[in-house]
Amino acid sequence: MLWYEIIGIVMIIIGAIFLFLGALGIIRMPDVYNRMQAGTKATTLGALSVIMGVGIYHPAWIFKTGIISLFILLTNPVSSNALARAAHNAGIPLYEKSVVDKYAEDKEKIRAEEEKQNG
Amino acid sequence: MRVFISTVVLFIVWVILTQSFDPQELFTGLIVAAVVSLISPAIASDKPKKWFQPKRYVYLIIYLFYFIWEMIKSNIDVAKRVVNPKLPINPGIVKVKTKLKTNAAKLALANSITLTPGTLTVDIHDEWFYIHWIDVSNCDDVNRSCQEIVEGFEKYLEVIFE
Which residue of A113, B26, B55, B81 has the fewest C-beta atoms within 10 A of its own C-beta? Predict the structure, then answer.
């Protein structure tokens, strides 16, 4: 086995472990927002690690997998931002042990300003 | 000028994806890139001069390494909380003020926040970021802006995008 194949395999295994922990987090966390925390972070790093591992295992693919990783980096957090915002606006409550919710405090002010801007 | 820059960027992506220097494919890619940048002014840069300042690229590369390191740390942190039987979380939504002005910089900052230590951007309103934090106790006073979330990223993003 060549040295870069070993690095590729190790990266794929690390990615798989992170994906597993992400799935476990989605089950164990108490509310939507905390689940999203586990979901976004672990799956982004897991997917990146698996994809880059494949790129290193087959060195000819490294530029392609690099571009794919870049797109995942740019788009994955946007989707979780949108989901979190939609969940909060739909009135899904935070976990009862949550400490503070600044967004709920400021929400009416934000809505009023947005309506003023949109006429 | 603006069209030229987006054409070049799209063309580079094309070459990387096709991985071929066959003249036919290069020619097709050039035409597609030019047409796409002509019909979609929304993707063009608003200040073309920014693309010719090498300092921005140096900072971008430093930032990428810093960011990947932060991302690995955040993943290990969240993973530890997930496997801990007591589930030690202390969540809440805090707000943070940023000094970044342009939309591209704010997008990059929001994405970076989402991918790093236990934080998730919920909404952006003007210069305020509303951030869901998995462990609020790191911030000594939740009623002021919890600047420590953004400090590390801001100093790089300021140079790259502003």
Answer: B55
